[in-house]
Description:
- The chain is an alpha/beta fold.
- It folds into two domains: 44-322, Purple Acid Phosphatase, chain A, domain 2 (4-Layer Sandwich); 355-571, Alpha-Beta Complex (5'-nucleotidase,  domain 2).
- Strands 5-4-1-14-15-32 form a six-stranded mixed β-sheet, covered by helices on one side. The chain has a six-stranded mixed β-sheet with strand order 7-8-10-11-13-12, covered by helices on one side.
- β12 (275-276) and β13 (282-285) form a beta hairpin.
- α2 (74-88) packs antiparallel against α8 (323-333) and α9 packs across α12.
- It starts with 11 loop residues before the first helix and ends in a 7-residue tail after the last strand.
Amino acid sequence: MAFLKSSSGRTHVENTLRRSVLSQKLLLTFAVALLTAPVDAAELTLIHMGDIHGHLVPRPSVRGETTAATEGGLARIYTKIEEIRTRRTPARTLLIDTGDTIQGSAEALFTRGQALVDVLNRFRIDAYAPGNWDWVYGVDRALELFAGPNAKAPWHALAANVYYDGEPYASQAGQRLLPPYLIRDIDGVKVGILGFTTDRGPQVVGLGVTKGVYFSKGDAELKEFVNTLREREKVALVLMISELGISNNIRLAEQTPGVDVVLSSDMHEITRVPVVTSNGTLVTEVGQDGQVIGELNLTVEGGRIANWKWTLHHIDDRIRPNAGIARLIADIRKPFLAGPQFEPHINPFNGAKLLTPIDTVVGRTTVALHRMNFAAHTPAAVIEGTSHIFLTDAFRHESGADIAAIRGFRYGTVVRPGPITLEDLYYFIPIGPMIAKGTIKGQQLKNQIENSIDGSLNPNVSKWTGGWLFNYSGVRVEIDPYAKAGDRAKKILVADRAGKLWKPLDQEADYTYASYYYTRDPALINAMPAKNISIVKNANGDDLDAVEAVIQYLAHLPRRMTTPEPGRLKLLRPIPAASFGSPEIQPWRGAVQSAANTPKARILNLPAAAPSARTNVQDPGNDARK
């Protein structure tokens, strides 16, 4: 059989085959382009939760954001999450938890976080950014929960900024403990989720708790991985999930273009209105203890966010708890509550035994105990709180020290005027310290006060050290928040226990000082060097867990009644007013006054949307402000 030849000398069959191959290559190229190119328009929803701090069940509300009696509760949160998923279509939603989840309650403490894991494993979390307190049970426990294919908490934990760094992990030095990012395809939108954990380990529980691990502030990693996600992975949307706190997350987003959304935790702030940075990044944070969850609906067109809508869902009595989750929580709590299923538990930090059900009433209070007030209220939580005043009074009384202190821990609960339960005390003291007394110099106290102020109010938020101002018993301080570092504590008075007088601090003098103590750091009290250290004991001479020390203090009070009074830390000038459209607990830009320090971030106005313009809507959802 003869084959026809073209002028090029190829046969007809050869030409036909060649055209077929070329067509297939073109089709393949086109198909790849379709897969990698951003879709014309797509809808996706981000569900944001964070800073649960061990709260399985609701707690009292205090700030007036809801008229309901209680807020929070994981069974209620699950109900709202499932409602959002159903309304927005499950395949188009991502549930993100931004950390500080497995610490903060008796159930969390005595199970090393497992109580929370057992519940949240039902939630189908799509990505997780571990918080500083998620490392509190040690690096090995964090890896057991969050790392690898057999993670007990398979929440897809991400952290670009934590590395092995020496013993006991010397052979892995320089490697990351967790993946930095993951990719999800949502309704045809390629989403890059980039995770950041804390920039500090929970050192107060012992300098060795994160030994062999290094945390960075995230600046270099954000630049590196935004470029990776945009240029190599070709994502349409960069979602940063971060436990670095809203202030530092705003800072990072401002200096690194290319981040579309930041879901933040750590500072316990609530963005009633999302922050929109000068380069267009949306930043949100969702309070603490499950008060609220956020719903961010995004429309993506041409590879960019065209429209967004933010709904803040207040989790309170108006939401019916999911029955299955509520039963699971009840079962987990039975061994901790009065009844036939109560069991003794061992404190993993100090070996103390829990022999009393946590619903036991151990005292009473005439005022609400908490540290949650916004900066515009007195006392502002960033400065002091009745809960910490109460605890320091207990530490000082039981130790006989001149001074007692507590760090400015943001976690805790709310206790209404009335009964105080053992459970309440574990919300305030969920990290297993003992209380010890030692001798320090006045200069050490001065330094601690100044460092605490600077670590919370420095206008350069990258220098913050975590938490709020230390609170004290036996100390009064006048504070100028706008003075230079090291000179903000203008007057420090110390109580003279013998004469019941207040005297100026003598920086050369010795004072006895009481606070948290861990035997793994035998020369430190509250992470500060001290001499002549002695642990507070009970009548039998046994070392006392801090919670037991507070119970012993309450037993000494008439009718076991406490009445803590704020005002020990006095501001000479008010701290800055909120400037981002939401009430602020801790000023998000620090203590700034001058026009030169006006925040770069802004709240986007709400004009009528042009057809192709990026538009935004804030919806209070079921917030009590309606």
